[in-house]
Fold this sequence. Notes:
mainly alpha; three-stranded antiparallel sheet; 7 helices
Amino acid sequence: MPRVRHKSLDCSPGCAVEGTLSLIDGKWKGVILYHLFEGTLRFNELRKRLPNVTQRMLTNQLRELEAQDLIVRTVYPVVPPKVEYCLSPRGQSLEPVIMALKAWGDANLDLTKPVETEGAAAA
């Protein structure tokens, strides 16, 4: 049975960690934020940088990041529609966190070989 996440983050000292992770959980949110540290990007520019993400998933992740006030979506009234995404001040404050995750991954993950899954290791 999956563990229930706390709605209130005053339950224990670790709940702040859980709350922070809940903002950037999901396969693509951290990567989207990482690319937006370079500056404002349009939707298709993000798609090119994330070739394995589907259009629907990217849209959903961007909407969630916007709802969490981590990114700002700007729509320009032109035809065809022009939409840009940039980090909000709250999103910019996550840069040290995301960069620490990147540094840890660079030091500890061998990204040149395939990652073993739990089921494959047991077989």
